[in-house]
């Protein structure tokens, strides 16, 4: 009997994701709660999504934020890039500071949205990879 093994099939999929830390005029940050039925359902996150072929990180963040929240943003300075492996998924998160420029956020692709102060972020449960984003924000990295 012929046995075949493929090392690549045992590796979790890798997603490259653009993430926006969106600030409003009151210096609050927009977070959203993932839908319960999806991966990591019910956890809070900084909005963003998968980079499409031929798309820059900045274009991805603008598109995803518009699709998920119905708002226009300005993508600003790079905050941090994180490589993280969960048991089921590998992610590379490229995170940028963003500024709300038009619209009122709506929970189009999530269960809930909130504007929160930087000091209040630790009251919410985020996916593991997001801890490094919160640490970078508290250190004041990048210009808002």
Automatic annotation (TrEMBL):
SUPFAM superfamilies: Nudix. 8-oxo-dGTP binds at residues 34, 45-48, 130. Keywords: DNA damage, DNA repair, DNA replication, Hydrolase, Magnesium, Metal-binding, Mutator protein. Residues 12-140 form the Nudix hydrolase domain. It catalyses: 8-oxo-dGTP + H2O = 8-oxo-dGMP + diphosphate + H(+). The keyword Nucleotide-binding does not apply. The keyword Metal-binding applies. This is 8-oxo-dGTP diphosphatase. Its EC number is 3.6.1.55.
């Amino acid at each position: 009997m012929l046995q075949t093994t493929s090392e690549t099939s045992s590796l979790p999929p890798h997603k490259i994701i653009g993430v926006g830390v969106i600030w409003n005029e009151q210096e609050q940050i927009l977070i959203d709660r993932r839908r319960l039925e999806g991966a990591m359902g019910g956890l809070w996150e900084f909005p963003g999504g998968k980079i499409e072929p031929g798309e820059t990180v900045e274009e991805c963040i603008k598109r995803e934020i518009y699709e998920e929240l119905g708002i226009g943003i300005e993508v600003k300075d790079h905050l941090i890039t994180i490589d993280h492996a969960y048991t089921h998924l590998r992610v590379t998160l490229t995170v940028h500071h963003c500024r709300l420029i038009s619209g009122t956020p709506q929970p189009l692709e999530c269960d809930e949205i909130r504007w929160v102060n930087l000091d209040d972020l630790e009251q919410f449960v985020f996916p593991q990879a997001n801890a490094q984003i919160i640490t970078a924000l508290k250190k004041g990295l990048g210009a808002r």
